[in-house]
Amino acid sequence: MRVSRGLEYAVSKSGVAILRSIGNCTDEHIVVPSDVEGYPVVGVAEKAFARSTQIKSVTLPASVRFIEAQAFAWCRELTYVKLTSTHEIGTRAFMGCDKLS
Which residues of 76-101 are buried (b: 16+ CB within 10 A; e: fewer)? Predict the structure, then answer.
């Protein structure tokens, strides 16, 4: 699968890349990379993809340990999310994702 381009990231004090927002990515099928500039992507920030109208699926790498509150809230077209080792899912992370089964 091709990794999505145009996603925005923030690097924390510990040097770990954290997915921050959708940026200018227009992919319908989001594939988050396992690392950015050599740092593992460990989480999806609060409201990072909230209210996205184009997202239909999301694939998160095994390095992702948390999804913060409302990260994918109201993504009305979202039908599939692949999680492998996420340890923490925040409040209402998938609220309003009516097509998600």
Answer: eebeebeeeebeebbeebbeebeebe
What pTM does this model have? 0.88
Model pLDDT, residue 14: 58
Q: Which long-range contacts (CB under 8 A, 24 or more apart) does 6-11 make?
A: 7/32, 9/36, 9/41, 10/45, 11/36, 11/37, 11/39
pLDDT score for 15 = 55
Q: Convert the pLDDT of each residue in 8-37 to its tens digit.
A: 888 876 556 677 676 788 899 999 999 888
Q: Tell me if residue 59 falls in helix, strand or coil.
A: strand
How far is CA 42 from each of CA 45, 63, 73, 79, 101, rounded to the nearest angstrom?
A: 10, 5, 19, 23, 24
